[in-house]
Specification:
Blueprint: E1 2-7, E2 42-46, E3 52-55, H1 61-68, E4 75-77, H2 83-86, H3 92-99, E5 103-108, H4 109-118, E6 136-141, E7 147-149, E8 152-161, E9 164-171, E10 174-177, H5 185-191, E11 196-200, H6 213-223, E12 227-231, H7 239-245, E13 250-252, E14 258-260
Parallel strand pairs: 3-4, 4-5, 5-6, 10-11, 11-12, 12-13
Antiparallel strand pairs: 1-2, 1-14, 2-3, 7-8, 8-9, 9-10
Protein name: MBL fold metallo-hydrolase
Domain Metallo-beta-lactamase: 39-232
GO molecular function: hydrolase activity
């Protein structure tokens, strides 16, 4: 299984719009370090059998897919409906044209219902071969109940994202937890034994909707993954500072990062 980090930034990205010269607000991040330039958070999984699974469709999706050479996949998992995770949904039209059919969209019933309200046209019957609009097929999931995608088992679990909930994802020994500030007991149980965990760490200091560095370190002590990768990082999280200060086994993601993991057991 290949994990590609399409983006690892917060809702404003790094740099955020503005700045004295109009070229961005960098906060504590060194603008001369390319790995401080972060688009909105998303990952892509390419399984050994060729199956592709996208997680979220943020506003930077087109550029992210082009940068990684990704042009075909059949599945997308939605963690929640905040704009930085869904507003690139129309870019899926280009993928529809490549695969010639609708894309399966997985999410909780609440998430899919809101997507169907905001982007009703995307869930209408598809229009091959032209695909005048993006086309998705809603696939509701229930937290804690395994689902099978292309023969691989995924367990999706609930997370506290401040005023709303979000969905965490586990496949084999890999887990992804973006946009989370608290992990309920059921989520901790789903994460038990995970070896590589990519987790939200927006800043160094406490935040009402996102995990911060101290909290992530507390989770690490409980879950004890071999490798913990920070994502959804804001402008407090300078690459150089993290390289010099993160403890062993903890690292920062960067846009364009990819890594290989053993494929989980194939069910079919």
């Amino acid at each position: 299984m290949k994990v590609s980090v399409l983006g690892c930034g917060g809702s404003s990205g790094v740099p955020a719009l503005g700045g004295a010269d109009g070229h961005g607000q960098w906060g504590a991040c060194d603008p001369n370090e390319p790995r401080n330039r972060r688009t909105r958070a998303s990952i892509f999984l390419r399984m050994e059998n060729g199956a592709g699974i996208l997680v979220d469709t943020g506003p930077d999706l087109r550029a992210q897919l082009l940068a990684h050479g990704i042009s075909a996949f059949d599945h997308v998992i939605y963690t929640h409906t905040h704009a930085d995770h869904v507003s690139g949904i129309d870019e899926l039209r280009g993928i529809n044209r490549q695969i010639g059919k609708a894309i399966n969209a997985y999410g909780t019933a609440e998430v899919l219902e809101e997507l169907q309200q905001r982007f009703a046209y995307v869930f209408k019957p598809c229009t091959p071969p032209q695909f005048f609009r993006a086309a998705l097929e809603a696939r509701p999931i229930t937290w804690g109940q395994p689902i099978i995608i292309e023969g691989y088992t995924f367990v999706l679990f609930g997370q506290n994202h401040g005023y709303v909930s979000s969905t965490g994802i586990r496949c084999g020994d890999f887990a992804y937890s973006t946009d989370v500030v608290e992990l309920p007991d059921a989520a901790m149980e789903c994460l038990r034994g995970v070896q590589t965990w990519m987790v939200d760490c927006f800043q160094k200091t406490p935040h009402g909707a996102h995990a911060w560095l101290e909290r992530v370190m507390e989770w690490k002590a409980r879950i004890q993954p071999q490798r913990l990768i920070l994502t959804h990082m804001g402008s407090e999280m300078d690459w150089g500072w993290m390289q010099n200060n993160l403890p062993h086994g903890v690292e920062a993601a960067w846009d364009g990062m990819s890594f290989e993991l053993p494929d989980p057991p194939h069910c079919l």
